[in-house]
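Anyone opening a protein record will find just a pair of labelled lines. A complete record is shown below as an example.
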Amino acid sequence: MKDISEISSSVIARLPRYYRFLCELQKNGTERISSKELSAKMGLTASQIRQDFNCFGGFGQQGYGYKTEQLIKELSAVMGLDELKSAILMGAGNMGRAVASQMSFETMGFSLKAIFDSDPLFKGMSLKGLPIRSADELEAWCAENKTDMAILCIPQEATPAVADKLVMLGVNSFWNFSHYDIHSKHPFVNVANVHLSDSLMTLSYTIKNNGKG
């Protein structure tokens, strides 16, 4: 198994896709699969799959393939999905409501513990069984509750101050929908940026250059 610092970001980025495909295979009754069979389904080479898995110890046996259930458990442990981390949501607007309602956080290693919004319109309302708290309550809540990650579904112009406050309160990981570059001021925090417009523009490029438009 490689040292974690030696594993490329491209390998790490492929782990969720492996996990998703394997979970689907398990649902369909596949108990064992070879790297060759998995490569045919995922559009990767068998060699690439073996190299990726070898970064974390291999998981399978030569000529024997992988037990689907065991491989899912191994990947789950590698990605930390088997240990729930505390998350809070900043922003209960359209994007925040969609994220809170549609995401199955527990299956992805997180437990949504609190929701905050600065708009008094949301006072007394709840989302996914949680009360929507005033943003003024954030500091007191974080003082009493461990917070591993913040989901930012707030306007870009509001994000710098909110991110600064969260970092000051000890939050060092962000799932960022705001389009603000948190790393520009806080280079040592963990950030996963979500740019829906980027993926749509990438699709536009693909359609244009594949002659499908």
